[in-house]
TrEMBL record:
This is Carboxypeptidase regulatory-like domain-containing protein. Residues 1-22 form the signal peptide. Keywords: Signal. It comes from the Bacteria. Residues 128-147 are annotated as: Disordered.
Length: 147
């Protein structure tokens, strides 16, 4: 090996060792997650489909999201106080749009009142021991479309 090849070789080894050692002490598994599941109804009926999002109530940290199917959900999230957002869209009968030229798609609208999604008032406290179940009973009319 010539001198420049030897230098490159040792630099590569040093970089590799630094990368490995820098990772030591970190929790490779990430934060402890708690499974929360439950039922969601809107005006007494199971919410057919949608999304549920748990955001840290203090705005610091990660948000966790899950799917709602046939009025049920299951989501993994970190412990702490969470703001809950629930969203569900449906096709508007007889309305389509062609936002992308040549691509006709159904117009969709939010069916969950804004007080449960974009302006959510829902909160839940996730404890270390886990929350076996958290049901959400939603009431109200869908938001009115913007004109």
């Amino acid at each position: 090996m010539n001198r420049s090849t030897t230098h490159i070789f040792f630099c590569a080894i040093a970089f590799f060792l630094f990368s490995v050692l820098a990772g030591c002490g970190k929790n490779a598994d990430g934060p402890k997650l708690i499974t929360v599941s439950g039922k969601i109804t809107l005006n007494g009926e199971p919410l057919p489909e949608g999304d549920i999002i748990f955001r840290p109530a203090d705005g610091q940290g990660h948000a966790y999201a899950g799917k709602i199917q046939a009025g049920t959900y299951s989501i993994e999230t970190e412990v702490g106080k969470k703001k809950v957002e629930i969203k569900s869209m449906r096709d508007v009968p007889g309305k389509t749009t062609e936002d992308n030229p040549g691509e006709v798609v159904n117009v969709r609208e939010q069916i969950v009142p804004t007080k449960y999604n974009s302006e959510s008032t829902l909160e839940i406290a996730i404890n270390e021991g886990g929350a076996d179940s958290a049901d959400f009973t939603l009431e109200g009319d869908p938001p009115q479309p913007q004109k």
